[in-house]
TrEMBL record:
The lineage of its organism: Bacteria, Pseudomonadati, Pseudomonadota, Gammaproteobacteria, Oceanospirillales. This is ABC transporter ATP-binding protein. It comes from the Bacteria. One of its GO terms (molecular function) is ATP binding. Residues 9-240 form the ABC transporter domain. Keywords: ATP-binding, Nucleotide-binding, Transport. Signal peptide: none annotated.
Amino acid sequence: MLGLETPILETQGLDKWFGGLHVTNQVNFRLDPGEIHCLIGPNGAGKSTLFKLMLGEHMPSAGRIMFEGEEITAEPSFARIRRGISVKFQVPGIFKELRVRHNLEIALQKRLKGDELDAEIERLLEFLNLYEQADKLAGALSHGQKQWLEIGMAVSLRPKLLLLDEPTAGMTPDETHATGEMIQALNAEGVSVLAVEHDMAFVRQIAQRVTVLHFGAVFAQGTIEEIVADDRVAAIYLGQGYD
Ligand SMILES: Nc1ncnc2c1ncn2[C@@H]1O[C@H](COP(=O)(O)OP(=O)(O)OP(=O)(O)O)[C@@H](O)[C@H]1O
């Protein structure tokens, strides 16, 4: 049941200032093990900054970050990755000049060798809907396929927690839906997920809980049904063109 276990990720009173700009404002956030959680909010609300604080790309001005009950506030990104946090950024970080298969091989060879490596490449190609693209150069994939390859690379280390920054940006509705199914399948294997997302249809598809950020602070939290029924949330999106 959500809320009773030690959170996989927790922030306590997290603050970030950029000069005079208070970009993260006393954020108390918890992600329970096994949860799919979406972080939404208008442009400039501070979603990416909160993400970067969780990853160790920015250091907070105040507050604490915990992973599985242990403090990681001052840890560099590589140490957080070693604990089991993996990330997929908006801009694909794939090797465009290499074949799709080879991209996966590079990501997987830290963990697997020989027959096991080969079998896992095949399994991932199937899982990512990239089986027929296996021998194409990664740079020749469609935008959506590149995002899927990046998801495959992000999960190749078997993370406990997957952080996704707008995973469906620029995707067609079909690709977006397929991405949702992929994330749900990973979640069914035990991966906890936190996704920054603008596409509300996608949020509705995957999120078990939603946090709304506004001016760097937690503005609302709940199920997607509670969030879409909240007039205060609708009001902060007015004029921004979201559905
Ligand atoms: N490195 C930085 N230095 C100074 N200001 C920054 C920096 N990074 C972000 N900001 C500012 O912090 C605020 C929040 O930015 P952030 O990118 O976290 O918002 P966001 O919710 O992710 O927005 P979007 O939905 O547009 O991606 C913005 O006003 C932005 O200009």
